[in-house]
Each structure stands twice: as C-alpha cells, then as structure tokens.
Amino acid sequence: MTAGGCAHPGGAFSGPCESAKAELRQIDDLLAQGKTEQQIIEAFVAQYGTIAYVEPPKHGFGLVAWIMPFVYFLLGLALVVFIVRKWAMRPAAASPATASARNDALDRARAQAARETED
Predict the structure, then answer these.
(1) HSE on the CB side for 1, CA within 13 Å?
(2) How many CA atoms lie within 13 A of 23 on its CB side?
(3) What's the pLDDT tens digit per position in 94-119?
(4) Which of 6, 70, 95, 96 is within CB 3.0–4.6 Å of 16 for a Cys-Cys bond?
(5) To 5 degrees, how large is the angle CA 45–CA 70–CA 89?
(6) What is the rounded distance in angstroms from the CA atom of residue 5 to the CA atom of residue 25?
C-alpha cells in the first residue's frame, strides 16, 4: 500500500494510519534536505527492502509477480479447452433409429402380452 492510501486494519477511516503518517513525515524531511525523488526511493528501499515499491520490480524474483498471472491464464485456458474437447468426444446418445427399434420391440411384447392374457 502507498503511504497516502494506507488502509491498515484498525486505522482511522478519516486518513492514513500512524505508520503512513510517519513515512510521509520522513519523505517531507528528505525533501527538505534537498534529496531527489530517486534518492528518497533508494533510501526507502535501503530501509525496507523491495517491499517499499508499490509494484514489484520487473527483474529478479519480482518478475515472477509479473509473469504468473499470464501463466495462470494460459493454464486455465488449456484446462477449459481440454474439458470442452473431452465433452465433445463423448459418444452420442442413442440414435433415433435405435430408439424406434426399441419401441417396435416394446410394441410387439405388449401385443403378445395382450394376446396371452385374453384367454
């Protein structure tokens, strides 16, 4: 989270939390000392590590955070394609010709049962 948009649990909803206020004061102090934005960023990275960045760096381990959404998307797409193809390859249900043959056999059986029970 950025210091200006802090939303720590338990923080006041009327503004940034105490941690963010301290960071903003630190930034103001560094600006008053005449430090450039890049020098301030480097100071925060030296103090907090790469977690100080709002977005991960596009090199090293931070590159994983940029690549993984695309990897997950491609894996999900491959899974959907696999499942759809699997469903499409299922054998078709009984064809109408087979159903009518079953109906004919059922009709013959009913007729025979009717003849046998007439006596």
Answers:
(1) 14
(2) 19
(3) 555 555 667 888 888 889 988 888 86
(4) 6
(5) 160
(6) 15
Tell me how far CA of residue 42 lies from CA of 5, 39, 49, in angstroms.
21, 5, 9
**Which position has the token pair 């029970």?**
117
Pairwise CA distance, residues 42 & 35, whole Å: 11
Q: Which helix (H) or strand (E) holds 115?
A: helix 96-118
| Those residues with Cβ within 8 angstroms of residue 62's Cβ, 6 or more apart along the chain or in another chain | 50, 53, 56
- Residue 33 backbone dihedrals phi, psi, to 5 degrees: -80, -5
**68 close to 56: Cβ distance less than 8 angstroms:** no
Which tokens go with 76? 């999900």
- Express each pLDDT in 83-95 by its tens digit: 999 988 887 665 5
Tokens of 102: 């079953």
DSSP string, 29-66: HHHHTT--HHHHHHHHHHHH-GGGSSS--SSTTHHHHH
| Cα separation of the two ends of the chain | 91
